[in-house]
Specification:
By secondary structure, this protein is α/β, with parallel strands linked by helices. The chain is built from 18 helices and 14 strands. The strands form 2 sheets. The chain has a 7-stranded parallel beta sheet with strand order 3-2-1-4-5-6-7, sandwiched between helices.
């Protein structure tokens, strides 16, 4: 009863907040944080025609989630070819990546904001039969309106952080009500499984982390060849997916290592590319010779730090650099996915803050496939060791690649768990063969 009242109040507030949210979306679009040409999609207004068919809707909140969905999308299209696939994401960066990587015939839309009108318009137009949600947040309108329309929902790769779990436990009846929207919860770890069950989810199982199943990131062969020729034997290392506060640490480490590693190049790939200009300004003010890829600046022998503030090129940097620091781990941001560089055989370093990928980091560290550092001095010493010692560097990289390969079979288990729901969607389409454009 209490949960139902809370959801009703949330929905009423959503109707009242419509004008405020629309103004907020316009401001975000003006600042580059929303796509101005597609901001209507965030309000549930379709941005593409809906071809007839039975739709599986796959939602990946941001870059990591949407990339992890790609092998699942490929498998669905191969094994359930009569189903159409609609993918939604919530960020400009993820939308750009999906534009380049989604297979032909797969549609992309921005996910509507969690207002009842926006969500309702989205469902009424696209009419998905099955929704596969790869998202750590529980959006009340999205879930309750999907349930009200009879959309079969599965939470895929479900993660419930310790902080979120503690918060939801204070409102357990509401959490249980929202989780009841899912016919199945596929938790990404046993710990997540226990947390979902504690909050009231009914059908919960764990078949592993979908991010283990992703294919190695690709790179433009011509650009890789040109950069390899340009750099030759020049020593180099990469800091990937960095967050504010980390670039200064990395720059100081670079300065400390340079006297003993002549010509050292440090490449910084920020988590949010739109920070590139600000990073360059700060590092130049600290006295470094910096070139910014996003501005087309030339990488030369005099360049100390190269800011790779572009989208979709991480595979290029992982293949160019044997040593990779995982960003978001030197500052308390929860870290990033270490499996991406692992698949490409990099020697991987991370800091102390890997809470978002704790199970992966712990398992890799146990397998000697990742090195943890405790502070700036430890980072400098570790990078120096890996630059100097080929055998140590290659052993770490080999262990990382082996770890990633051993975990890749998770996709088969997840698809097997989803198969009854996908089969049901096919059967539903055969019965209701009249899905047409809205």
């Amino acid at each position: 009863m209490v949960a139902a009242i809370a959801l009703s109040l949330y929905r009423l507030l959503g109707y009242a907040a419509g004008p405020i949210v629309r103004a907020h979306l316009r401001r975000r679009a003006a600042n580059g944080r929303e796509d101005p040409n597609r901001v209507g999609e965030r309000q549930g207004v379709p941005g593409a025609q809906r071809p007839a068919g039975t739709y599986v809707w796959i939602h990946g909140a941001s870059v990591g989630e949407s990339l992890s969905a790609l092998p699942l999308i490929e498998r669905i299209r191969r094994d359930w070819p009569t189903l159409r696939v609609l993918v939604t994401t919530g960020t400009v960066t993820s939308a750009r990546l999906m534009k380049d990587r989604l297979p032909d015939g797969v549609l992309h839309q921005y996910i509507p904001v969690d207002l009842p009108g926006a969500v309702g318009r989205f469902f009424d137009y696209w009419k998905p039969t099955l929704g596969l949600v790869i998202e750590s947040e529980l959006w009340p309108n999205l879930l309750s309106l999907a349930k009200a329309r009879g959309i079969n929902l599965v939470l895929v790769n479900g993660r419930m952080s310790a902080t979120s779990f503690a918060g939801w436990r204070r409102f357990r009846p509401l959490a249980a009500q929202l989780l009841s929207s899912f016919d199945l919860v596929l938790a990404q770890s046993e710990e997540d499984q226990v947390r979902f069950q504690d909050l009231g989810a009914q059908d919960v199982c764990c078949h592993g982390n979908l991010k283990f199943a992703a294919a190695p990131l690709s790179a433009d062969a011509g650009q890789l060849r040109d950069l390899q020729a340009l750099l030759g034997e020049r020593p180099r290392w990469l800091a990937t997916s960095t967050h504010p506060g980390e670039e200064e640490i990395i720059a100081r480490v670079h300065a400390e290592l340079t006297p003993k590693h002549h010509g050292l190049l440090t490449i910084v790939a920020p988590r949010h590319p739109n920070r590139g200009r600000d990073i360059v300004v700060r590092l130049r003010a600290a006295g470094h010779n910096v070139a910014r890829r996003g501005a087309g600046e030339t990488l030369t022998d005099a360049t100390d730090i190269y800011v790779a503030d572009t989208i979709g090129e991480l595979g290029l940097w992982y293949q160019l650099c044997e040593i990779v620091l995982i960003g978001g781990s030197l500052v308390p941001k929860g870290g990033q996915n270490a499996l991406e560089p692992a698949r490409l055989g990099c020697a991987i370093i991370c800091g102390a803050h890997m809470s978002n990928f704790r199970r992966i980091a712990d398992s890799m560290a146990k397998a000697r496939a990742l090195r943890r550092v405790t502070d700036e001095a430890d980072l400098a010493a570790t990078v120096a060791e890996l630059l100097d010692n080929t055998a140590t560097r290659e052993a770490l990289a080999t262990a990382a690649a082996a770890f990633a390969a051993a975990e890749a079979g998770v996709l088969d288990d997840i698809v097997a768990a989803l198969a009854p729901h996908l089969d049901r969607a096919v059967q539903s389409g055969a019965v209701q063969s009249g899905n047409v454009s809205g």
